[in-house]
């Protein structure tokens, strides 16, 4: 195979993003996966030992990455992202906002049925590190209660709202609620700033490497459009997009 110049690479990214934009629009009204109830609660993840309470990335010596999503916003973008990931054999991690689950309860099962990780991103997505202990506890518990009711499990992961990292207090509260590890990230796609699909893909692909945990968001068209470009390039680099549970197992 010949070498691909930076200009050619950029052209491919832009072309891919354009195609994906059209696909994203087409998928916007896709119906939700019917979702069968399997009943049994998932097993706790078998994590490798001695992990810190707050995780920013997985092992750097294995060709695996985790694409993690803020579970909020337009459910059409969520369904489009999930369908695209599944087309590529990729598995995602969705950190769901509790009020988003109230508005779209079917998505909890949709995510789990697709083989993705589902976790807790607080009840209302407020600045949890600035809250009192009682308020922060209620934010974590409120989302955990919804996850448990909808899927039979509080999920494996907690991510704080409005901050990449959790304060020591919030970390302790998350652990008390059943989340041994707070999930941060080492690659920020900045997709929530709507910089254009090509910019989202470029930033992720410039920074992602073995073990990376990437922060992405449902609710933004740029993310939907960038995802096929990112997944194709990950394939080319031999990096598998796996659940966070798998990344750390
Ligand atoms: Zn968020």
CATH class: Alpha Beta
Q: In sequence order, what are the helices and strands, one letter per element? A: HEEHEHHEHHEEHEHEH
Shape: globular
Distinct compounds present:
zinc ion
How many individual domains? 1
> Which class of secondary structure composition applies to the elements?
alpha/beta
Separation of the first and last Cα atoms? 34 Å
Report helical residue fraction.
Answer: 40-55%
Poorly predicted segments: 1-43
Q: Compute the average pLDDT.
A: 86
CATH architecture term: Alpha-Beta Barrel
Could you describe the largest sheet, including whether it forms a barrel? 6 strands, parallel
Corresponding CATH superfamily: Glycoside hydrolase/deacetylase
Signal peptide: 1-22
Region (Disordered): 31-60
Pfam families: Polysacc_deac_1 (PF01522)
Protein name: Polysaccharide deacetylase
Brief digest:
By secondary structure, this protein is α/β, with parallel strands linked by helices.
Verbal overview:
This protein is an alpha/beta fold. It has a single domain (56-247), classed as Alpha-Beta Barrel (TIM Barrel), CATH 3.20.20. Helices cover 44% and strands 12% of the residues. The chain has 9 helices and 8 strands. The protein has helices spanning 6-27, 75-87, 98-103, 106-113, 133-151, 168-176, 197-207, 221-237, 244-247; strands spanning 54-55, 64-71, 92-96, 117-120, 182-183, 187-188, 213-217, 240-241. Strands 2, 3, 4, 6, 7 and 8 form a 6-stranded parallel sheet that branches. Strand 2 (64-71), helix 2 (75-87) and strand 3 form a beta-alpha-beta unit. The two termini are 34 Å apart. Residues 1-43 have low confidence and may be disordered. Zinc ion binds at residues 70, 121, 125, 161.
